[in-house]
Amino acid sequence: MSQSSPPPRASSPRQSPALVAVEGRAALLTPAGEIIAGPPAAITGPLAALPPPLLVHAPAVWRRLGIRPRPALDLLELFAFVHPARALVPTPRGLAGFFDQPTPGADPAEQVGQLAGFAASLLADLARARRLPQNRDAAALAAGLGRAGWGWAEAVLAALDEPAALPSAEALAVWRRLPEWPETAPLPPPSAHPVGAAEARRRLAEILGAKAEARPGQSDYAAAATEAFAPRAERGAPHLVLAEAGTGTGKTLGYLAPASLWAQRNQGPVWISTFTRHLQRQIEGELARLYPDPAARRQLSVVRKGRENYLCLLNFQDAAQGMGLTVPPLALGLIARWALATQDGDIQGGDLPGWFAELFGQGAILALADRRGECIHAACAHWRRCFVEHAIRRAESAELVIANHALVMNQAAHFWNWGEGAEESAVPTRYVFDEGHHLFDAADAAFAAVLSGVEAAELRRWLLGAEGSRSRARGLRARVGELVAGLAPLEAALEAALIAARALPAPGWAGRLAGGEGPESGDLAGDPIGPANPAEAFFHALNRQILARTPGAERPPESAGMPREVDLHPLDPAVIAAAAALERALARLAAPLAALRTRLQARLEDAAETLDSATRNRIAAACRTLGRRALERLTAWREMLAALAEPPPAPGTRPRFITFLRRETLPGGGIEVGLHRHWLDPTEPFAATLAAPAHGVLITSATLRDEGAGDPVAAWEAAEARVGAGYLPRPAVRAALPSPFDYAAQTRVFIVDDIAGGDIAALAGAFRALFLAARGGALGLFTAIGRLRAVHARLAPALAAAGIPLYAQHVDAMHNATLVDIFRAEEESCLLGTDAMRDGVDVPGRALRLVVFERVPWPRPDILHRERRIHLSGGAPGAYDDRLARLRLRQAFGRLIRSDGDRGVFVLLDRRLPTRLYPAFPEGVPIQRTGLAAAVAATAAFLSEGVAEAAKK
Predict the structure, then answer these.
(1) Residue 566 backbone phi and psi in degrees, to 5
(2) Which of 76, 203, 416, 572 would be 257's cystine partner, CB 3.0–4.6 Å?
(3) Rounded Cα–Cα distance for residues 567 and 863 (Å)
(4) Residue 38 — left, alpha, or beta (φ > 0 → left; ψ -120 to 50 → alpha)?
(5) Which is it for strands 301-303 and 430-433: parallel, antiparallel or unpaired?
(6) Torsions phi, psi of 568, nearest 5?
(7) What dihedral do alpha carbons 9, 12, 16, 22 form, nearest 10°?
(8) C-alpha to C-alpha distance for 553 and 559, rounded to whole angstroms
(9) What are phi and psi of 738, to 5 degrees?
């Protein structure tokens, strides 16, 4: 750890000042015991003359005070050291809840006096646990962090009351103390015994227990789900079940009952896929009811995510040894503590608290994961301790695998397109897709292809390494050099590939493109080599066409975060010529890579009697990575480039793909341009690569159907079209279970008709009036980040004056999951968000009693949507738009009522809502068009009635 002069500090946490800040208000407790409270300006002056203060979540506090970061004793840092891998709502009130202390009010002056007590409690916890194995190296680690300037080090060492037994560098070397995964024999394929409806109902009753409230809809749902677990009668014809379960049905346990029964009976896994990390966490929590014993739960279930979500031990070692990864020493020390306590090594939504990245920057987390496909697999010294490999092997023997749509689809595509990654018997035969209304978008992302500057430059970096930068990227030579050494054909293929890789964008390409610098001149059509860099020449040509075709190009829309998109046709001749040159260059790259892969695979057979297990594993991993990371991508890019020479589709014909050009500004500056290709209907490859090979698929959601058109049959047909059922030979089984909630009694819907669209002041005034009427517990939803930020700036002071905490996505230094955790814990708080909040918030009770939607959520009018509304709408593009808007309104409304005792109001601040969208709301819900004043009064009265009724009960 690098050493620096530690900041000035008080002699103990109890002698430190304490600081709490919310929007517009703050409180400072001085060492003399005086509380200074008021607006931020009243705090910042006295604060400057004091030692570093005790506080909770320093980045959020400094933002709310409007000052630059400075030294502080952040209680979250101390918590992460004392209780690694433990959950905590990162507020003073969250700490009060953790220690089971009385929860203070929302006023900072009520909270600031508790901070010293929280520090003392955490240090006492550490002192009690100092002899436990997990704290064996805690003193050495704390000593090293102290030399790096950590303000808590002295107090931590006093609590541990023992000298550091190891050098701090050795204490960081957690990779030496993690367990290795064991090798096991491959499992036989599962059998195919069915699960009966009555059995599923009994299993559900066992999970719920004798004292559970009877929910007939949940039992019916479990029975209907068993159709997805029937034996398959014909290859390529899975049992497909579409099950819509209204909010409150209890669908998670409803499908876990037959899924777990089938898995136990047939000795095979069921993969349960979700769209959001939030639901993955929720399902993981429900598994405790299915497997009460933690050891059995860990053996029989596993959460799977993409490799980029896990701590890479090789990256961590490089950072700990100062090998180019700029991760703060404190972050490394706390990650070392966490790595020994974590259940699965997931640093993106697992048991590493979401606020960890907020304290140290998302870059610190990304640097410690494999974000760029650089894993060297079996060549890594930490391979047998790797968190990813642990998860993969646990999934091979688990009954239930909780994954996500992107991972599941990508794995299916890799296996069925390349025959890689698994034996056919190990490919899952049963899937449950929860949040099934997201399948279309998830498939769109998984099966799209992008040839862009960023993607091509990343491939060059993967092949050639860092090329002089401080990055640790090793390049292909470092990955396979030992495997090809002394073998002339393999060495020649490797050298040829590395030479050909220089046709990809060179370092600094984005800045050159932004500055308008063109490639070297040359005859693109006739020169077999082309300009110095054919990839940069191609992107320069794309950029020129985009700028020429964009309406209003003098005012770049991407400067406001909006990318430019233009149609591919008619193509500029310069693009066609540059594409041909780049396709030839990519062919020169693909050929030696394919030869290298083929010859490496041949070694597995030709040298079978001499290769040791480690070398065989390294060769297999190298072949797999070459296919996935390079050859598959190059194949798609070459197909896209070759297609540019073909004539455009005739007007009126239905294309298979939608291809267009996009230009956008990169976060660090520079311009990104790319050629984008999407399937017109992405559920077609989803059905071919995943659904058709499966034996049974359950697709479920609370919002599968849109009944707004008034035709139940048409609603089911539209739902089937959105999940690709039409591409399968066997008709889908349809099941619909209504919500058990009495929406007519529990909810109200108001359409405010006197707010002018685009008037930020009026919009902010409406949010203020409604949030104050509800006295908090409100979720504000926006269709644009810019409007969210503008409203937040006007809304925050008014709510602060009323003692109502306000949190906001894209404003607060917190991730979505952290914001939702705080919102759920603080009943009177309010939260602003965009799409992710519309569909990813589960907050039962009074903590969410009002949803205010800023405007009708029409689909974004981009090129993709334009083509799909033409070709997938059945001749009714307007109805296609309406269906998408209704489904989004249903999802937003669904955030409101999560339990029988909930009562809530939904307000839309858009008078342009057409009545044909009213069926987005449950039947019987009172819908009233009214002015803002009447909506505010009615909201206050309706929610007050709910409080009075709850008090009577």
Answers:
(1) -135, 155
(2) 203
(3) 7
(4) left
(5) unpaired
(6) -70, -45
(7) 100
(8) 11
(9) -70, 160
Kindly calculate the radius of gyration of the chain based on its CA atoms and give it in whole angstroms.
Answer: 29
Which are the contacts of 239, defined by CB distance < 8 A and separation ≥ 6?
227, 228, 229, 230, 232, 695, 696, 697, 730, 733
Scan for tokens 């433990």, then name that residue: 86
Do 60 and 814 form a contact (C-beta atoms < 8 A)?
A: yes
Report helix, strand or coil for 26: strand
Instruction: Quick: pLDDT tens for 7-22.
Output: 334 446 667 999 999 8
Q: Scanning the structure block, which residue is given the tokens 């296609």? A: 880
CA distance 279 to 273: 9
Pairing state of beta strands 270-274 and 400-404? parallel
Looking at the DSSP bridge assignments, the partners of residue 699 are: 242, 433
- What share of residues in the chain are helix, strand, coil (percent, to 5)? 50, 10, 35
* Residue listed under structure tokens 């992302």: 445
Mean pLDDT, residues 560-567 taken together: 80
ω into residue 8 within 30 of 0, thus cis?
Answer: no
E strand residue ranges, 479-562: none
**Which residue type occupies 115?**
L
Q: Confidence band (pLDDT; 50, 70, 90) for 415?
A: low
Distance CA 373, CA 384 (A): 18
Least reliable range by pLDDT among 260-264, 427-431, 432-436:
427-431
d(C-alpha 494, C-alpha 593), whole Å: 7
CA distances from 690 to 208, 415, 714 (A): 32, 10, 26
Of residues 23, 112, 59, 37, the one with CA closest to residue 829: 23
The backbone torsions φ and ψ at residue 158, rounded to the nearest 5 degrees and listed phi first, read -65, -40
Task: Tell me the per-residue pLDDT of 826-853, one tens digit each, with 9 for 90 and over.
Answer: 889 999 999 878 876 788 888 999 999 9
pLDDT digits (tens, 9 = 90+) for 285-343: 899 999 999 999 999 999 999 888 999 999 999 888 876 567 899 999 999 999 999 99
Q: What is the three-class DSSP state of 20?
A: strand
H/E run at residue 581: helix 573-606
Give dist(CA 79, CA 352) in Å, integer: 12
Task: Tell me the pLDDT band of 163, cut-offs 50, 70 and 90.
Answer: confident
Chain segment 490-500, per-residue pLDDT in tens: 999 999 999 99
CA 143, 148, 149, 152 torsion-angle sign: negative
Q: CA-CA distance, 775 to 761, in Å (whole number)?
A: 21
What one-letter code names the amino acid at 499?
I
Instruction: With both helix axes pointing from N to C terminus, report the angle between 632-643 and 405-418 in degrees, rounded to the nearest 10.
Output: 80
Encode 44-75: b = buried (16+ Cβ within 10 Å), e = exposed.
eeebeeebbbbbbbbbbbbbbbeeeeeebbbb
Of the chain, the end-to-end C-alpha distance in Å amounts to: 59
Q: What are phi and psi of 452, to 5 degrees?
A: -130, 170
**Residues ≥6 apart with Cβ < 8 Å to 812:** 60, 63, 819
Angstrom distance (rounded) from CA 320 to CA 329: 8
What is the three-state SS of 606-633?
HCCCCCCHHHHHHHHHHHHHHHHHHHHH
Q: Which residue has the tokens 């996935």?
A: 628
Tell me which residue of 883, 446, 859 sits closest to 678, measured CA to CA: 446
User: Is 159 a residue whose pLDDT tops 80?
Assistant: yes
HSE at residue 28, side-chain half, CA atoms within 13 A, is 23
3-state secondary structure of 243: strand
Average pLDDT of the chain, as a whole number: 88
Q: In what order do the strands lie in the sheet with 657-665?
A: 449-452, 671-679, 657-665, 564-567
The two three-digit tokens of residue 150, written as one number: 């950590």
As a whole number of angstroms, the distance between CA 346 and CA 338 comes to: 10
pLDDT digit string (tens) for 688-746?
Answer: 999 999 999 999 999 999 987 678 899 999 999 999 999 999 999 999 999 999 999 99
pTM: 0.92
Q: Letter for the amino acid at 581?
A: A
